[in-house]
């Protein structure tokens, strides 16, 4: 019966939709009242209606919203362009109109419970000095069964295909979970002497070897057999969706787990939101709303990809033990030679602990010492490695210089 949980959730969402849309319509009419009538009662009523209208998740990717970027002392218009696409993902190009030529970069986003837009700030920073492309993964609930499966090998193959589309001397930066596939793709392309193998490979807060200082996330992955994950977490996509009957790890289940870890904080944030709205503190309310608009935009994971990642990366550690394969052939990190390698970790990372990403340096023995860079960023957790002030001011300049030296 666990496999029907997603269907039950979708049915409940559909049944309660009139309440949310009704609250939204009432809020629109309430906002038409003259300003003089917007007393304490009306403001609190408006706040309540807005919270009711927001009591659902969305399964659509939010907009990146990157319209312009400053390069040097000039501002350039940015347009999104799909350079290549498969049913499971797009190679999305942030094209700067009439900008000077810059190093091409593939930013590899995690296939997790959220969309690649979670890296919006990372993209905006990288655009200052690079021609940026991103792996814009599609939601499996929108992908028909006829388009086949998507496992760990398929993810790696997508990276090889995307790099091939970018052409020679591009650079690859992988954030978190896909560091394993990025390293595998680089190794396979190097062994094949592929003309589009990346000039540099940067791995940021990635689980290359989770045997090193295991986090609670790592411990949980090893605490149960893979069959438990399959039985308890995998569901069928509801019949209302294009991807009906595809097996997935549902986004709402992942989000529930994340929220439960900091439940008091999320409750307080929504109480604060209600108070800000009631007091007319628009700017403070918008900050909270913008965060939860992104946080509650959830994406399912293909069952094959999720289960293979748990098994190979977090339970059996196939990459650091030299047992990883791609389409049946061994993945050999020592084949990586004429390539720069940079690893970045956060001192306070409680998802991917210190040493787990650094392990890539020990695996890639073919990379010359002068092409290696490792950076441990003091004072940041997992997300601080690729977003926020420390990323912009301390980590990014190192990455930029590393890429340009090896360009």
Provide an overview of this structure.
- With 407 residues, this protein is an alpha/beta fold.
- It has 2 domains: 2-56 and 251-295, no CATH class; 68-219 and 301-405, Rossmann fold.
- The protein contains 13 helices and 14 strands.
- Strand 11 (325-326) and strand 12 (329-330) form a beta hairpin.
- The longest helix is centred in the first third of the chain and has 26 residues, at 5-30.
- It is globular, with a radius of gyration of 22 Å.
- The relative contact order is 0.14.
Q: What is this entry, summarized?
A:
The protein is of the alpha/beta class.
Oligomeric status: single chain
Order of helices and strands: HHEEEEHEHEHEHHEEHHHEHEEEHEH
Estimated share of beta-strand residues = 15-25%
The number of helical runs is 13
Pfam families: PHB_depo_C
Protein name: Polyhydroxyalkanoate depolymerase, intracellular
Domain PHB de-polymerase C-terminal: 205-405
Organism: Bradyrhizobium erythrophlei
